Amino acid sequence: MESLWQRHASRILCLAIGLTLLSVMLRTLPGLHRLLFVEHPRGATDLLLRYAELQRWFAGAPVYGGTIYAAYPPASYMLLFPFIGWVDETAARWIWCILSIVELALLSRWTIKMTRTTARLEKAVILLTFFSAYPITLTLGSGQLGIHILALILGALLLSRSGSGWLADLGTGALLVFAAAKPSFGAPLYFVFLFAVGRLRPVLIAVCGYGLLTALALSFQSSPPGQMLGDYYGKSTEVINAFGGAHIARWMHIMGWGKWTSLASIALFLALGLWIYRNRHADVWILLGVSAVIARVWTYHAPYDDQLIFLAMIPLLRWLRQDGMEERLKLPAACLLAFAWLAMFMPARTLYFPWPWNLPYHAGLPILWGLMLILLVRVARFEHISQMAENSRLSAKM
């Protein structure tokens, strides 16, 4: 495989660049046009829904009883206000667009750095992939939150590993608070900060900050806080049960276990936390990749949240570039990375095709994610054992 890659790498990478450029023209540019210029409901769908909910929230009007789409926690409206709450819809669209483009550039730059990529063609593929994969283009067109949260999570992790003082911890905690604007997207990733980063202070700052923002947000509503939180829980459960996609709630409904969906999500969430704690000495990027796969399936997500799988692709690419790892796992890692990359350019509308044409999304992607999860768990276990052995050797020398 290494020999084949060395002989044909340039051709393969040039084909990959061609595919990403084609996707930019056919998907990304139309997505940006939808975000900026197309009227609701086809353009900036989710952004304008959040905008309307935010206006109602701070006017003291009911939010959770108005529409099925209002399923964000109270603190989310406080977190969104600095960006879109004080401007008109047109300005909100442009602010969202500029932020998204800047964050995609940062994500690609951080990925290039984290994966130790030096070849120009490989850098170009990574950069273009972040701007052209189908979950990114869907997110751009609808004005969803995924790009922002992905950038906030990675930024928080890089900041937490670059310093250990109060300033770094405050910055990390602030980024984690803003990343909590969509808890279903980022909550499972917080276990990495809690157990694997090695410092509890940023997490405590984030928890306290989120609690204060929740209390402040509830003060704008006339209903009692307990009732508002109950309405939020009921609305979020309604959304989980109402929409399809590849996630545990839908699979539970298919098997006739719909009433156990909340319990299954909580159990999967807690199982991830226990696993992260037991393997906390493994490479933090591999732990983040495992958490990302679980985050993708632990509750309701639409296709635009498939961008979480980027966090599972990064450790595979990092691991393939490292020496001293299990050679027998490098071939499956390379194959899974290639399939995951190709899957990022499949037509997302296959989700809505009739059976059996929807199998690539409903069956193919979950199987791929499951195989990536198994491999990452195996690699994490290998690294955990290696790190523990190294610590034992160091202790023996001392």
* Total of helices: 18
Biggest beta sheet summary:
none
- Element-by-element helix/strand order: HHHHHHHHHHHHHHHHHH
- Gyration radius, rounded: 21 Å
Structural class per helix/strand content? mainly alpha
Question: How far is the N terminus from the C terminus?
Answer: 42 Å
* Approximate shape: globular
Mean pLDDT: 89
Helical fraction equals over 70%
> How many strands appear in the DSSP assignment?
0
Poorly predicted residue ranges? none
Which strand-content bin applies to the residues? Answer: under 5%
List descriptors.
398 residues, 18 helices, 0% strand
Describe the structure.
- With 398 residues, the chain is an all-alpha fold.
- It has 18 helices and no strands.
- Helix 7 runs antiparallel to helix 8 (166-179) and helix 16 packs antiparallel against helix 17.
- The chain is globular, with a radius of gyration of 21 Å.
- The protein starts with a helix and ends with a helix.
- The model has no long low-confidence stretch (mean pLDDT 89).
Quick structural overview:
It is built from 18 helices and no strands.
Task: Draw up the topology in text.
Layout: H1 2-36, H2 45-58, H3 74-85, H4 89-114, H5 120-132, H6 134-142, H7 146-162, H8 166-179, H9 183-186, H10 190-196, H11 201-218, H12 225-242, H13 248-254, H14 261-278, H15 284-297, H16 310-320, H17 330-343, H18 359-397
Helix pairs in contact: 1-5, 1-6, 2-3, 3-11, 4-5, 4-7, 7-8, 8-11, 10-14, 13-14, 14-15, 15-16, 15-18, 16-17, 17-18
